[in-house]
Fold this sequence. Notes:
By secondary structure, the protein is mostly beta strands. Helix content is 5%, strand content 49%.
Amino acid sequence: MAKIFALLLLCIVPASAFGAVVPTISLRPVISANPSYQTPNASVVLTAIAKVPKGEVTYTWTVDDVEIARGIDIDKITLTAGAGGSTKVVRVFLVDAQGAEGEALYLIRPGSVDLVWEGNTYIPPLYAGKALPTGDSMIQVQALPHIEIGSGRVPKNSLVYTWEVEGQKLEAASGFGKSVLRIKPTKLKYQTRVSVTASTPDGTIGARASATIPLYNPVVVIYEEKPLSGTWYTQATPAMTTLSADEVAFRAIPYFVLDPKSVSFVWTLSGEPFEIDTPDRSIAVFRKTGEGAGEYPVGVTIEKRDSLFERASSRFVLSF
Length: 320
């Protein structure tokens, strides 16, 4: 019996002598980025999120396998994204005092997106600028993404677009391949804020951009109407103009209206309206009579009935 007791005691003693075995708990960090989609050569803040107590965990950060930071509670770093199409592999390793470990990975793959906008308003032939939106017009916004994977650019029709106006998501306008947005301007404001996020279908790569689109007033520009060549679009009528012949015609051209045929034209001479004797009311003809000389202010106003926005005026001084 004594031998059996000794054997049993021998089996029991080691466990009590070395203590209970505590299983290693795995830390589970996650890396978040601000901004969530990075632009080329811009700063990005990475934060390792983990449910760990302060003062007990060592963080080690590496970029492309090169250590860049190490220390207790260093849960945040700031980096600079590379060029478009590049990739930086960021890892963070966590170790606590009990030996528990954890690791997380984040890929910085910067992209960009340009926003090009215009109004659906009228501009005359040969005008080099774009049609500007007014309070009456629609606004069209085109997203031009620059997102690359490896050595190739992702086609714009292969991306998912999320559109926002004044911070509110437009569900119907967002979705796969929807790179164009058409909206009315924000009511009771002089500008409209539009944002877009273009991303791959899995959301791993993307870019975000915003634009503040101002509203403009229509303008009317007066050009000389040549007998043979027509409207002289290359030069607007100067503020001081000399009658170059016994009879000269001038045409008023509206810019940034919905339809130039829907506006009325009122011409004035020395501040007084006068009748136009041509079917085209946008043209006024001036004839020199007699041998006298003088200066006469000439003006024109365009206006659309029942519109708060489509109204503009222009003037010049005509000397004989």
